[in-house]
Amino acid sequence: MGFPSGPAGDRALELAYDPLRFLERARAAHGDACGVTLARESVVLVSSPDLARKVLRDENASFQKDGTAFFPGSSLAGNGLLVSDGETWARQRRLSNPAFRKAAVETYARCMIDVGNRLVSQEWSKRGVRDVYADFNDATLEIVARALFGADVVGERANRINGAIKDSFEFFGRRAATGMIIPEWAPTFDNFRYNEAVKRLDEEVYGLISKRRRDIAAGEEKGDLDLLDRLLLATDEEEPESKASGMSDKALRDELMTLMVAGQETSAILLSWACALISEQPEAGDKIANEVRELLQSKPPGSNLDAGDYSKLPYTEACILETLRIRPPAYMVGRCASRDVELRPHVFITKGTTVLVAPYLIQRDPKYWNEPTSFKPERWLVQSPYSDGTLARDALKNLGPNDAYFPFGGGPRVCIGTGFAMMESVLLLALICQACELRLPPNSSPPKPKALITLRPDAISLLVGPRPRRT
Ligand code: HEM
Questions:
Q1: ipTM of the complex
Q2: Global pTM?
Q3: CA dihedral 46, 51, 55, 61 (to 10 degrees)
Q4: CA of 395 to the centre of ligand 1 (A)
Q5: 354-357 vs 41-46, strand pairing mode
Q6: Is the C-beta atom of 105 inside 6 A of ligand 1?
Q7: How far is Cα 79 from Cα 39, in angstroms, rounded to an integer?
Q8: What are the binding positions for heme in this chain (predicted)?
Q9: What burial letters (b/e) apply to 236-275, b meaning 16+ CB within 10 Å?
Q10: Ligand 1: does its nearest atom lie under 6 Å from the Cβ of 411?
Q11: Cβ–ligand 1 contact at 287 (below 6 Å)
Q12: What domains can you pick out in the chain, each with its CATH number?
Protein backbone atom coordinates (compact mmCIF):
# COMPACT_ATOMS: atom_id res chain seq x y z
CA MET A 1 0.00 0.00 0.00
CA GLY A 2 1.24 3.52 -0.72
CA PHE A 3 0.68 6.87 -2.29
CA PRO A 4 0.02 6.39 -6.04
CA SER A 5 3.08 6.92 -8.22
CA GLY A 6 3.48 10.05 -10.29
CA PRO A 7 5.95 12.66 -11.50
CA ALA A 8 8.77 13.62 -9.14
CA GLY A 9 9.16 17.07 -7.59
CA ASP A 10 6.67 19.88 -7.14
CA ARG A 11 4.68 20.35 -10.36
CA ALA A 12 2.65 23.43 -9.40
CA LEU A 13 4.20 25.62 -12.12
CA GLU A 14 3.49 23.05 -14.81
CA LEU A 15 -0.12 22.82 -13.66
CA ALA A 16 -0.52 26.60 -13.54
CA TYR A 17 1.05 27.03 -16.99
CA ASP A 18 -1.25 24.64 -18.85
CA PRO A 19 -3.62 22.60 -16.63
CA LEU A 20 -5.22 20.62 -19.46
CA ARG A 21 -1.91 19.52 -20.93
CA PHE A 22 -0.65 18.70 -17.46
CA LEU A 23 -3.68 16.47 -16.80
CA GLU A 24 -3.29 14.69 -20.14
CA ARG A 25 0.43 14.04 -19.62
CA ALA A 26 -0.03 12.87 -16.04
CA ARG A 27 -2.57 10.28 -17.07
CA ALA A 28 -0.56 9.14 -20.10
CA ALA A 29 2.54 8.61 -17.98
CA HIS A 30 1.09 7.40 -14.67
CA GLY A 31 -2.40 6.04 -15.29
CA ASP A 32 -5.78 6.80 -13.78
CA ALA A 33 -4.53 7.47 -10.22
CA CYS A 34 -1.52 9.73 -10.34
CA GLY A 35 0.07 10.99 -7.12
CA VAL A 36 1.74 14.38 -7.44
CA THR A 37 2.96 17.24 -5.27
CA LEU A 38 1.44 20.61 -6.17
CA ALA A 39 2.42 23.72 -4.21
CA ARG A 40 3.55 21.39 -1.38
CA GLU A 41 0.15 19.65 -1.28
CA SER A 42 -0.12 15.87 -1.83
CA VAL A 43 -2.66 15.45 -4.59
CA VAL A 44 -4.06 12.42 -6.41
CA LEU A 45 -5.40 12.99 -9.93
CA VAL A 46 -8.21 10.56 -10.70
CA SER A 47 -9.19 9.91 -14.32
CA SER A 48 -11.15 6.67 -14.68
CA PRO A 49 -14.87 6.06 -14.26
CA ASP A 50 -14.50 3.45 -11.51
CA LEU A 51 -12.29 5.63 -9.31
CA ALA A 52 -14.43 8.72 -9.97
CA ARG A 53 -17.52 6.76 -8.91
CA LYS A 54 -15.80 5.67 -5.69
CA VAL A 55 -14.75 9.23 -4.76
CA LEU A 56 -17.97 10.99 -5.71
CA ARG A 57 -20.54 8.33 -4.87
CA ASP A 58 -19.66 4.96 -3.32
CA GLU A 59 -17.08 6.20 -0.81
CA ASN A 60 -18.36 9.77 -0.57
CA ALA A 61 -18.48 9.55 3.25
CA SER A 62 -14.67 9.35 3.26
CA PHE A 63 -14.33 12.67 1.43
CA GLN A 64 -15.24 16.27 2.22
CA LYS A 65 -14.93 19.76 0.77
CA ASP A 66 -13.10 21.32 3.71
CA GLY A 67 -9.33 21.18 3.22
CA THR A 68 -9.46 20.64 -0.57
CA ALA A 69 -6.48 22.40 -2.14
CA PHE A 70 -7.03 24.77 -5.11
CA PHE A 71 -10.74 25.25 -4.42
CA PRO A 72 -10.67 28.28 -2.15
CA GLY A 73 -13.81 29.36 -0.33
CA SER A 74 -14.73 33.02 -0.26
CA SER A 75 -16.45 35.51 1.99
CA LEU A 76 -18.90 36.04 -0.87
CA ALA A 77 -20.22 32.46 -0.87
CA GLY A 78 -19.74 32.06 2.93
CA ASN A 79 -20.67 28.61 4.23
CA GLY A 80 -23.16 27.84 1.44
CA LEU A 81 -23.79 24.49 -0.25
CA LEU A 82 -20.67 24.55 -2.43
CA VAL A 83 -18.27 24.42 0.51
CA SER A 84 -20.13 23.20 3.61
CA ASP A 85 -19.87 19.62 4.90
CA GLY A 86 -21.59 17.15 7.20
CA GLU A 87 -24.94 17.86 8.85
CA THR A 88 -24.76 21.62 8.01
CA TRP A 89 -24.54 20.74 4.30
CA ALA A 90 -27.18 17.96 4.53
CA ARG A 91 -29.74 20.22 6.20
CA GLN A 92 -29.14 23.11 3.79
CA ARG A 93 -29.42 20.71 0.84
CA ARG A 94 -32.73 19.32 2.15
CA LEU A 95 -34.05 22.87 2.58
CA SER A 96 -32.86 23.96 -0.88
CA ASN A 97 -33.88 20.92 -2.96
CA PRO A 98 -37.58 21.89 -3.41
CA ALA A 99 -36.57 25.23 -4.98
CA PHE A 100 -34.87 23.27 -7.79
CA ARG A 101 -37.55 20.70 -8.56
CA LYS A 102 -38.84 20.62 -12.15
CA ALA A 103 -42.03 22.61 -11.48
CA ALA A 104 -40.08 25.31 -9.65
CA VAL A 105 -37.45 25.58 -12.41
CA GLU A 106 -40.23 25.99 -14.99
CA THR A 107 -41.33 29.16 -13.19
CA TYR A 108 -37.83 30.65 -13.64
CA ALA A 109 -37.96 29.92 -17.39
CA ARG A 110 -39.92 33.14 -18.07
CA CYS A 111 -36.88 35.29 -17.30
CA MET A 112 -34.60 32.96 -19.31
CA ILE A 113 -36.81 33.45 -22.38
CA ASP A 114 -37.10 37.23 -21.84
CA VAL A 115 -33.35 37.63 -21.60
CA GLY A 116 -32.75 35.38 -24.64
CA ASN A 117 -35.30 37.26 -26.74
CA ARG A 118 -33.77 40.59 -25.80
CA LEU A 119 -30.27 39.39 -26.68
CA VAL A 120 -31.25 38.32 -30.20
CA SER A 121 -33.59 41.24 -30.90
CA GLN A 122 -31.22 43.94 -29.62
CA GLU A 123 -27.51 43.23 -29.05
CA TRP A 124 -27.27 40.50 -31.71
CA SER A 125 -29.74 41.93 -34.22
CA LYS A 126 -27.09 43.55 -36.44
CA ARG A 127 -24.37 41.59 -38.22
CA GLY A 128 -21.00 42.10 -36.52
CA VAL A 129 -18.28 40.56 -34.38
CA ARG A 130 -19.21 40.19 -30.70
CA ASP A 131 -17.47 38.82 -27.64
CA VAL A 132 -20.19 36.28 -26.92
CA TYR A 133 -18.57 35.31 -23.61
CA ALA A 134 -19.03 38.89 -22.33
CA ASP A 135 -22.64 38.92 -23.60
CA PHE A 136 -23.45 35.59 -21.93
CA ASN A 137 -21.90 36.76 -18.67
CA ASP A 138 -24.35 39.68 -18.65
CA ALA A 139 -27.27 37.46 -19.73
CA THR A 140 -26.70 34.70 -17.14
CA LEU A 141 -26.13 37.24 -14.38
CA GLU A 142 -29.47 38.87 -15.15
CA ILE A 143 -31.17 35.45 -15.30
CA VAL A 144 -29.80 34.22 -11.99
CA ALA A 145 -30.51 37.56 -10.24
CA ARG A 146 -34.11 37.59 -11.51
CA ALA A 147 -34.64 33.91 -10.64
CA LEU A 148 -33.37 34.63 -7.13
CA PHE A 149 -35.10 37.92 -6.38
CA GLY A 150 -37.85 38.27 -9.00
CA ALA A 151 -39.41 41.67 -9.51
CA ASP A 152 -37.46 43.18 -6.59
CA VAL A 153 -34.36 43.41 -8.76
CA VAL A 154 -35.16 46.21 -11.17
CA GLY A 155 -33.86 49.70 -11.92
CA GLU A 156 -31.28 51.16 -9.55
CA ARG A 157 -31.28 48.15 -7.24
CA ALA A 158 -30.55 45.82 -10.19
CA ASN A 159 -27.65 48.05 -11.21
CA ARG A 160 -26.25 48.05 -7.66
CA ILE A 161 -26.55 44.27 -7.25
CA ASN A 162 -25.25 43.41 -10.70
CA GLY A 163 -22.39 45.92 -10.38
CA ALA A 164 -21.27 44.47 -7.03
CA ILE A 165 -21.49 40.89 -8.32
CA LYS A 166 -19.48 41.78 -11.40
CA ASP A 167 -16.79 43.44 -9.27
CA SER A 168 -16.56 40.31 -7.11
CA PHE A 169 -16.42 37.94 -10.08
CA GLU A 170 -13.72 40.00 -11.76
CA PHE A 171 -11.74 39.68 -8.54
CA PHE A 172 -12.14 35.86 -8.64
CA GLY A 173 -11.01 35.86 -12.28
CA ARG A 174 -7.86 37.85 -11.44
CA ARG A 175 -7.19 35.71 -8.36
CA ALA A 176 -7.47 32.47 -10.34
CA ALA A 177 -5.29 33.85 -13.15
CA THR A 178 -2.38 34.58 -10.79
CA GLY A 179 -2.38 30.95 -9.62
CA MET A 180 -1.75 32.23 -6.05
CA ILE A 181 -4.35 32.37 -3.32
CA ILE A 182 -3.79 35.60 -1.38
CA PRO A 183 -6.11 35.57 1.69
CA GLU A 184 -9.07 37.93 1.37
CA TRP A 185 -8.11 39.74 4.59
CA ALA A 186 -4.63 40.71 3.31
CA PRO A 187 -4.35 44.52 2.91
CA THR A 188 -4.13 44.71 -0.89
CA PHE A 189 -5.94 47.20 -3.12
CA ASP A 190 -7.67 44.34 -4.96
CA ASN A 191 -8.90 42.81 -1.70
CA PHE A 192 -10.13 46.20 -0.53
CA ARG A 193 -12.26 46.62 -3.65
CA TYR A 194 -13.56 43.06 -3.42
CA ASN A 195 -14.49 43.39 0.26
CA GLU A 196 -16.29 46.65 -0.54
CA ALA A 197 -18.29 44.86 -3.24
CA VAL A 198 -19.23 42.05 -0.81
CA LYS A 199 -20.34 44.69 1.74
CA ARG A 200 -22.56 46.38 -0.85
CA LEU A 201 -24.08 43.02 -1.81
CA ASP A 202 -24.66 42.10 1.83
CA GLU A 203 -26.59 45.33 2.39
CA GLU A 204 -28.81 44.65 -0.60
CA VAL A 205 -29.36 40.95 0.11
CA TYR A 206 -30.05 41.33 3.85
CA GLY A 207 -32.40 44.22 2.93
CA LEU A 208 -34.31 41.95 0.51
CA ILE A 209 -34.47 39.12 3.05
CA SER A 210 -35.98 41.31 5.77
CA LYS A 211 -38.45 42.91 3.33
CA ARG A 212 -39.65 39.43 2.29
CA ARG A 213 -39.96 38.29 5.89
CA ARG A 214 -42.14 41.36 6.58
CA ASP A 215 -44.27 40.66 3.46
CA ILE A 216 -44.80 37.05 4.53
CA ALA A 217 -45.67 38.09 8.10
CA ALA A 218 -48.19 40.59 6.68
CA GLY A 219 -49.77 37.72 4.69
CA GLU A 220 -49.01 39.26 1.27
CA GLU A 221 -50.00 36.96 -1.61
CA LYS A 222 -47.61 36.43 -4.54
CA GLY A 223 -48.04 34.88 -7.98
CA ASP A 224 -44.90 33.03 -9.11
CA LEU A 225 -42.49 32.38 -6.27
CA ASP A 226 -38.83 33.19 -6.85
CA LEU A 227 -35.90 31.31 -5.34
CA LEU A 228 -35.70 33.63 -2.33
CA ASP A 229 -39.40 32.98 -1.53
CA ARG A 230 -38.91 29.23 -1.84
CA LEU A 231 -35.81 29.19 0.36
CA LEU A 232 -37.52 31.45 2.92
CA LEU A 233 -40.59 29.25 3.13
CA ALA A 234 -38.66 25.94 3.25
CA THR A 235 -38.81 23.88 6.43
CA ASP A 236 -36.88 20.72 7.14
CA GLU A 237 -39.09 17.65 6.81
CA GLU A 238 -36.64 15.59 8.84
CA GLU A 239 -37.03 17.77 11.92
CA PRO A 240 -39.93 17.06 14.32
CA GLU A 241 -42.91 19.33 13.53
CA SER A 242 -42.59 21.23 16.78
CA LYS A 243 -39.00 22.15 15.95
CA ALA A 244 -39.25 22.43 12.16
CA SER A 245 -37.65 25.69 11.18
CA GLY A 246 -36.18 27.25 8.10
CA MET A 247 -32.91 29.01 7.39
CA SER A 248 -31.46 31.83 9.47
CA ASP A 249 -30.78 35.13 7.70
CA LYS A 250 -27.07 34.30 7.56
CA ALA A 251 -27.68 30.82 6.09
CA LEU A 252 -30.08 32.31 3.54
CA ARG A 253 -27.59 34.99 2.58
CA ASP A 254 -24.85 32.38 2.11
CA GLU A 255 -27.07 30.18 -0.11
CA LEU A 256 -28.24 33.12 -2.24
CA MET A 257 -24.67 34.26 -2.84
CA THR A 258 -23.56 30.67 -3.49
CA LEU A 259 -26.25 30.25 -6.13
CA MET A 260 -25.04 33.39 -7.88
CA VAL A 261 -21.42 32.25 -7.75
CA ALA A 262 -22.16 28.67 -8.80
CA GLY A 263 -24.86 29.40 -11.34
CA GLN A 264 -23.69 32.39 -13.34
CA GLU A 265 -20.23 31.82 -14.76
CA THR A 266 -20.65 28.08 -15.45
CA SER A 267 -23.73 28.76 -17.57
CA ALA A 268 -22.04 31.63 -19.43
CA ILE A 269 -19.10 29.37 -20.23
CA LEU A 270 -21.35 26.55 -21.44
CA LEU A 271 -23.33 28.82 -23.76
CA SER A 272 -20.17 30.45 -25.09
CA TRP A 273 -18.59 27.10 -25.97
CA ALA A 274 -21.84 25.85 -27.50
CA CYS A 275 -21.91 28.89 -29.81
CA ALA A 276 -18.19 28.55 -30.60
CA LEU A 277 -18.58 24.87 -31.54
CA ILE A 278 -21.67 25.64 -33.64
CA SER A 279 -19.81 28.42 -35.45
CA GLU A 280 -17.32 25.74 -36.57
CA GLN A 281 -20.17 23.47 -37.70
CA PRO A 282 -22.88 25.83 -39.00
CA GLU A 283 -25.07 22.87 -40.06
CA ALA A 284 -25.67 22.18 -36.34
CA GLY A 285 -27.08 25.73 -36.01
CA ASP A 286 -29.28 25.14 -39.07
CA LYS A 287 -30.64 21.93 -37.51
CA ILE A 288 -31.49 23.73 -34.29
CA ALA A 289 -33.25 26.49 -36.27
CA ASN A 290 -35.30 23.85 -38.14
CA GLU A 291 -36.18 22.08 -34.90
CA VAL A 292 -37.45 25.33 -33.37
CA ARG A 293 -39.37 26.28 -36.53
CA GLU A 294 -41.14 22.91 -36.64
CA LEU A 295 -42.02 23.16 -32.96
CA LEU A 296 -43.46 26.67 -33.36
CA GLN A 297 -45.47 25.56 -36.42
CA SER A 298 -47.34 23.16 -34.14
CA LYS A 299 -48.46 26.09 -31.96
CA PRO A 300 -50.89 28.97 -32.60
CA PRO A 301 -49.39 31.67 -34.91
CA GLY A 302 -47.20 34.22 -33.12
CA SER A 303 -46.31 31.83 -30.27
CA ASN A 304 -42.87 31.88 -28.71
CA LEU A 305 -40.94 29.17 -26.89
CA ASP A 306 -41.99 28.44 -23.31
CA ALA A 307 -40.71 26.32 -20.42
CA GLY A 308 -42.65 23.24 -21.54
CA ASP A 309 -40.72 23.25 -24.84
CA TYR A 310 -37.48 22.26 -23.16
CA SER A 311 -38.27 18.56 -23.61
CA LYS A 312 -39.38 19.05 -27.23
CA LEU A 313 -36.00 20.20 -28.51
CA PRO A 314 -33.95 16.97 -28.57
CA TYR A 315 -31.33 18.13 -31.09
CA THR A 316 -30.74 21.41 -29.24
CA GLU A 317 -30.41 19.46 -25.99
CA ALA A 318 -27.94 17.08 -27.69
CA CYS A 319 -25.79 20.08 -28.71
CA ILE A 320 -25.70 21.22 -25.07
CA LEU A 321 -24.87 17.72 -23.77
CA GLU A 322 -22.11 17.40 -26.34
CA THR A 323 -20.66 20.79 -25.44
CA LEU A 324 -20.64 19.73 -21.77
CA ARG A 325 -18.80 16.56 -22.79
CA ILE A 326 -15.87 18.10 -24.63
CA ARG A 327 -15.75 21.44 -22.82
CA PRO A 328 -17.01 20.75 -19.26
CA PRO A 329 -16.99 24.13 -17.44
CA ALA A 330 -16.15 22.29 -14.17
CA TYR A 331 -13.26 20.33 -15.68
CA MET A 332 -12.00 19.15 -12.28
CA VAL A 333 -13.91 18.37 -9.10
CA GLY A 334 -12.01 18.44 -5.82
CA ARG A 335 -12.32 16.58 -2.53
CA CYS A 336 -10.20 16.11 0.60
CA ALA A 337 -9.95 12.66 2.23
CA SER A 338 -11.49 12.87 5.70
CA ARG A 339 -9.98 9.47 6.66
CA ASP A 340 -7.55 6.95 5.18
CA VAL A 341 -9.19 5.10 2.31
CA GLU A 342 -8.17 2.38 -0.11
CA LEU A 343 -9.91 3.19 -3.40
CA ARG A 344 -8.79 -0.11 -4.92
CA PRO A 345 -5.88 -2.45 -4.22
CA HIS A 346 -2.67 -0.38 -4.23
CA VAL A 347 -4.51 2.94 -4.56
CA PHE A 348 -4.31 4.24 -1.03
CA ILE A 349 -5.33 7.79 -0.09
CA THR A 350 -4.32 9.09 3.31
CA LYS A 351 -6.43 11.47 5.38
CA GLY A 352 -5.89 15.10 4.31
CA THR A 353 -4.92 14.28 0.71
CA THR A 354 -6.65 16.27 -2.02
CA VAL A 355 -8.20 14.20 -4.79
CA LEU A 356 -8.89 15.93 -8.10
CA VAL A 357 -11.36 14.02 -10.27
CA ALA A 358 -11.10 15.01 -13.93
CA PRO A 359 -14.35 14.81 -15.95
CA TYR A 360 -12.39 16.55 -18.71
CA LEU A 361 -10.22 13.45 -19.23
CA ILE A 362 -12.90 10.81 -18.65
CA GLN A 363 -15.39 12.49 -20.99
CA ARG A 364 -12.77 12.47 -23.77
CA ASP A 365 -11.44 8.98 -23.16
CA PRO A 366 -11.43 6.87 -26.37
CA LYS A 367 -12.25 3.80 -24.25
CA TYR A 368 -15.75 5.19 -23.71
CA TRP A 369 -16.30 7.63 -26.59
CA ASN A 370 -15.96 7.25 -30.37
CA GLU A 371 -14.11 10.15 -31.97
CA PRO A 372 -13.82 11.64 -28.50
CA THR A 373 -12.59 15.10 -29.44
CA SER A 374 -15.16 15.69 -32.21
CA PHE A 375 -18.36 17.67 -31.63
CA LYS A 376 -21.03 15.12 -32.61
CA PRO A 377 -24.43 15.97 -31.08
CA GLU A 378 -26.01 12.98 -32.89
CA ARG A 379 -24.26 10.58 -30.52
CA TRP A 380 -26.86 11.53 -27.87
CA LEU A 381 -29.82 10.70 -30.13
CA VAL A 382 -29.15 6.96 -30.48
CA GLN A 383 -31.10 4.32 -28.56
CA SER A 384 -29.95 4.13 -24.94
CA PRO A 385 -28.75 0.74 -23.68
CA TYR A 386 -30.19 1.68 -20.26
CA SER A 387 -33.84 2.54 -21.10
CA ASP A 388 -36.45 2.83 -23.87
CA GLY A 389 -35.39 6.38 -24.73
CA THR A 390 -32.38 8.03 -26.36
CA LEU A 391 -28.97 8.18 -24.70
CA ALA A 392 -29.71 11.85 -23.92
CA ARG A 393 -32.49 10.76 -21.53
CA ASP A 394 -29.94 8.85 -19.44
CA ALA A 395 -27.05 11.29 -19.85
CA LEU A 396 -27.49 12.98 -16.51
CA LYS A 397 -28.47 9.97 -14.42
CA ASN A 398 -25.86 8.90 -11.86
CA LEU A 399 -22.43 9.33 -13.49
CA GLY A 400 -23.83 9.02 -17.03
CA PRO A 401 -23.23 6.31 -19.68
CA ASN A 402 -20.45 3.93 -18.48
CA ASP A 403 -19.95 6.29 -15.50
CA ALA A 404 -18.00 8.37 -18.03
CA TYR A 405 -20.14 11.54 -18.22
CA PHE A 406 -20.66 13.80 -15.22
CA PRO A 407 -20.34 17.48 -16.16
CA PHE A 408 -22.53 18.34 -13.14
CA GLY A 409 -20.64 16.09 -10.74
CA GLY A 410 -22.11 12.95 -9.20
CA GLY A 411 -23.28 11.33 -5.98
CA PRO A 412 -24.94 13.28 -3.18
CA ARG A 413 -23.13 16.51 -4.07
CA VAL A 414 -24.26 16.58 -7.67
CA CYS A 415 -25.04 20.10 -8.90
CA ILE A 416 -28.34 21.26 -7.42
CA GLY A 417 -28.78 23.58 -10.42
CA THR A 418 -28.57 20.86 -13.13
CA GLY A 419 -32.20 21.28 -14.21
CA PHE A 420 -31.90 25.08 -14.09
CA ALA A 421 -28.72 25.08 -16.19
CA MET A 422 -30.13 22.65 -18.76
CA MET A 423 -33.39 24.60 -19.12
CA GLU A 424 -31.49 27.89 -19.43
CA SER A 425 -28.92 26.70 -21.95
CA VAL A 426 -31.34 24.74 -24.17
CA LEU A 427 -33.88 27.60 -24.32
CA LEU A 428 -31.24 30.26 -24.96
CA LEU A 429 -29.43 28.22 -27.62
CA ALA A 430 -32.76 27.50 -29.34
CA LEU A 431 -33.73 31.19 -29.35
CA ILE A 432 -30.28 32.18 -30.60
CA CYS A 433 -30.08 29.69 -33.48
CA GLN A 434 -33.67 30.41 -34.48
CA ALA A 435 -32.83 34.10 -34.93
CA CYS A 436 -29.10 34.23 -35.65
CA GLU A 437 -26.27 32.66 -37.60
CA LEU A 438 -22.94 32.15 -35.87
CA ARG A 439 -19.63 32.06 -37.75
CA LEU A 440 -15.95 32.37 -36.96
CA PRO A 441 -14.75 35.83 -38.02
CA PRO A 442 -12.68 35.76 -41.24
CA ASN A 443 -9.02 34.75 -40.74
CA SER A 444 -9.52 33.71 -37.13
CA SER A 445 -8.90 30.32 -35.59
CA PRO A 446 -11.30 28.52 -33.22
CA PRO A 447 -11.07 29.80 -29.63
CA LYS A 448 -9.04 27.72 -27.20
CA PRO A 449 -10.07 26.88 -23.63
CA LYS A 450 -8.18 28.41 -20.76
CA ALA A 451 -8.38 26.34 -17.62
CA LEU A 452 -8.49 28.20 -14.30
CA ILE A 453 -11.00 27.14 -11.64
CA THR A 454 -13.40 26.60 -14.53
CA LEU A 455 -12.73 25.87 -18.20
CA ARG A 456 -13.40 29.39 -19.32
CA PRO A 457 -12.32 31.23 -22.43
CA ASP A 458 -10.55 34.62 -22.38
CA ALA A 459 -13.04 35.88 -24.90
CA ILE A 460 -14.98 34.25 -27.70
CA SER A 461 -15.29 36.56 -30.67
CA LEU A 462 -17.85 35.35 -33.17
CA LEU A 463 -19.47 36.86 -36.21
CA VAL A 464 -23.13 37.10 -35.24
CA GLY A 465 -25.95 38.15 -37.53
CA PRO A 466 -29.62 37.61 -38.28
CA ARG A 467 -30.45 34.24 -39.83
CA PRO A 468 -31.70 34.74 -43.40
CA ARG A 469 -35.46 34.13 -43.63
CA ARG A 470 -36.52 31.00 -45.53
CA THR A 471 -38.70 31.78 -48.50
C1 HEM B 1 -23.44 24.71 -16.96
C2 HEM B 1 -23.76 25.02 -15.76
C3 HEM B 1 -23.26 24.32 -14.53
C4 HEM B 1 -22.26 23.40 -14.37
C5 HEM B 1 -21.36 22.80 -15.44
C6 HEM B 1 -22.21 23.06 -12.97
C7 HEM B 1 -21.35 22.13 -12.41
C8 HEM B 1 -21.36 21.75 -11.09
C9 HEM B 1 -20.57 20.69 -10.54
C10 HEM B 1 -19.57 19.82 -11.29
C11 HEM B 1 -20.86 20.61 -9.21
C12 HEM B 1 -20.30 19.60 -8.22
C13 HEM B 1 -19.06 20.12 -7.57
C14 HEM B 1 -18.42 19.10 -6.65
O15 HEM B 1 -18.80 17.94 -6.63
O16 HEM B 1 -17.47 19.49 -5.97
C17 HEM B 1 -21.81 21.66 -8.92
C18 HEM B 1 -22.33 21.93 -7.66
C19 HEM B 1 -23.22 22.95 -7.40
N20 HEM B 1 -23.85 23.76 -8.32
FE21 HEM B 1 -23.60 23.71 -10.31
N22 HEM B 1 -23.16 23.80 -12.31
C23 HEM B 1 -23.83 24.57 -13.22
C24 HEM B 1 -24.88 25.42 -12.98
C25 HEM B 1 -25.42 25.69 -11.74
C26 HEM B 1 -26.55 26.55 -11.51
C27 HEM B 1 -27.36 27.26 -12.61
C28 HEM B 1 -26.73 26.61 -10.15
C29 HEM B 1 -27.76 27.36 -9.36
C30 HEM B 1 -28.58 28.27 -9.81
C31 HEM B 1 -25.70 25.76 -9.54
C32 HEM B 1 -25.53 25.56 -8.20
C33 HEM B 1 -24.67 24.62 -7.64
C34 HEM B 1 -24.56 24.40 -6.20
C35 HEM B 1 -25.28 25.15 -5.10
C36 HEM B 1 -23.65 23.33 -6.06
C37 HEM B 1 -23.21 22.68 -4.76
C38 HEM B 1 -24.14 21.49 -4.49
C39 HEM B 1 -23.82 20.72 -3.22
O40 HEM B 1 -22.65 20.48 -2.90
O41 HEM B 1 -24.80 20.33 -2.57
N42 HEM B 1 -24.94 25.22 -10.55
N43 HEM B 1 -22.12 22.33 -10.09
A1: 0.99
A2: 0.95
A3: -150
A4: 16
A5: parallel
A6: no
A7: 25
A8: 415
A9: beeeeeeeeeebeeebbbbbbbbbbbbbbbbbbbbbbbbb
A10: no
A11: no
A12: 1-76+334-364 (3.30.43.20), 77-235+248-330+366-403+407-466 (1.10.630.10)
Residue-by-residue pLDDT tens, the chain, 471 positions: 578 999 998 888 888 788 899 999 999 999 999 999 988 889 999 999 999 999 999 999 999 999 998 777 788 889 999 999 999 999 999 999 999 999 999 999 999 999 999 999 999 999 999 999 999 999 999 999 999 998 787 778 888 888 888 888 888 777 766 656 677 777 788 788 889 999 999 999 999 999 999 998 888 888 889 999 999 999 887 776 656 678 999 999 999 999 998 999 899 999 999 999 999 999 999 999 999 999 999 999 989 999 999 999 999 999 999 999 999 999 999 999 999 999 998 889 999 999 999 999 999 999 999 999 999 999 999 999 999 999 999 999 999 999 999 999 999 999 999 999 999 999 999 999 999 999 999 999 888 887 666 677 778 999 999 998 765
The Cβ of residue 220 has, within 10 Å, a number of other Cβ atoms equal to 9
- The full length of the chain comes to 471
Ligand 1 lined by 267 (C-beta under 6 Å): yes
Contact 463, 32 (CB under 8 A): no
Q: Is 436 among the annotated ligand-binding positions? A: no
